[in-house]
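2.7 Reproducibility. Because tokenized structures are sensitive to small changes in the input, we list the exact sequence used for Lysophospholipase, including any N-terminal residues retained from the expression construct. No trimming or masking was applied before prediction.
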Amino acid sequence: MAGNLSLRRAYPADAVIAEWRAPDGWAHRTFDWPAAGGARGSILFQAGRGDVFEKYLEAFHHWHDRGWHVSSFDWRGQGGSGRCGPHAHCGHVERFGLFHGDLRAFWTGWSARVPAPHVLIGHSMGGFLALKGLVEEAVDPAAAVLVAPMLGFKGAIPPRLAERLARLMRGLGDPARPAWKGNERPAATETRESLLTHDPDRYADEIWWQQADPRLLTGPPSWAWVADAFAETRMLREDARLARLNVPVLGLVAEADGLVDPKAAKAMLARVPTARTVAFGREAAHELLREADPVRDRALVAIDDFLEEKAPA
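Resulting structure tokens (single pass, no recycling of outputs):
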């Protein structure tokens, strides 16, 4: 069994699972784990599309053991933060602007109440939203880490054409309907497990949590989500403000990622003057923090070293 099962399938005794309401009243499920004694700083970790914070409890233990106050929340429309459409197992959001507003509002309140330095870590969609938040000056962390960030998509057709097709599909019917039946992308020949991790035990943790709490199963995205994801990532790639960012950024990129485009991520990070990139080869799938120990350990060491340098206590 990889790692410590008791850390991955149980909430820490002194962590608080609660609710935070966005300015428009939307209820988000939150995780908050204060450091024992004096914190060396605070990490806000934001997961990817369809994710829940339970999947990252093992990483939370790692950071908490090093003195960090650790927090997270499920994005609206997925996990324990409810659904924005009529389908119980579809990750729908009308527009990505809602995600941006939620991150801005949560960060404002969170950073005012938890110990500095403040760090933002985002995986996949969370990585995209973190970088977008930096560009928009919606967040002001001492440092940011983007783990397999969703800055482009793997696909059989060019991104511009895929964006046009997604926009067409959104307009042809109910935009809140599922874009496909299952898996992490349409017409995938790989299993969902192989797209996410080479570690079957850590992959099984997600299924265990979904069986323990069925509301944590999100399912595929809606056509509205897909269309906005293509448009938003394209606009960020074209944003001249990337070259003016002054927040230290670490990008962890899986070069064999079957979900997001690692070339797009590396190209975008190369435009950020304060960014450094650590690349992983074929040994790594999309979920670097839930990979087999050699990959996961290397990712955590890279994050630890970066934060010691860029966000010292």
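The chain is about 35% helix and 15% strand.
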